[in-house]
Write a structure and sequence with these properties.
mainly alpha; 2 domains; 55% helix
Length: 152
């Protein structure tokens, strides 16, 4: 399937500004399919939203709290304005990029810790299962010895 720019999605094929299915264009390359927003794909879930849709109040508050945990204080209303397309100074862009990277690192650390805890719990359950098997075996041996001594 060929890539069609979003500006041509709702137009007819007869429009001269849209690349036709027969003609070659520089937009035919699969490499020219990146997001057209200023944040590229570094916004995570935010960049996958349609351009005309705003960041919700809850999402903005949650994102603001996550940013505050890594040392970047940005008001939820300001995040909503950024996503809506308001002009953003370079230092604010840098802060947001830093916060996104730092929150991703924290998420990765939590995921790794959870994985270690799950592996540790699995090993503990296997150990407890083996202890129960050993106790069962010892009880069976003791019962066998008691029954043999009663017959003799």
């Amino acid at each position: 399937m060929r890539y069609r720019p979003s500006s041509c999605a709702n137009r007819s094929q007869t429009n001269a500004n849209c690349p036709s299915n027969n003609g070659a264009s520089e937009l035919d390359s699969p490499l020219v399919t990146s997001a057209s927003n200023p944040w590229a794909d570094e916004w995570g879930k935010l960049s996958r939203q349609p351009r005309d849709q705003c960041l919700g109040r809850r999402q903005a508050r949650r994102l603001s709290r996550r940013f505050a945990q890594v040392g970047v204080d940005t008001a939820p209303q300001r995040l909503q304005q950024m996503v809506a397309g308001a002009p953003v100074p370079d230092d604010e862009v840098t802060d947001v990029h830093f916060a996104l990277i730092a929150t991703q690192i924290k998420r990765d650390e939590r995921t790794a810790k959870l994985g270690r805890l799950q592996r540790r719990g699995t090993r503990l359950l296997i150990f407890l299962g083996l202890v129960l098997v050993m106790l069962n075996f010892l009880c069976c041996v003791a019962y066998l010895l008691v029954s043999l001594t009663q017959q003799a």
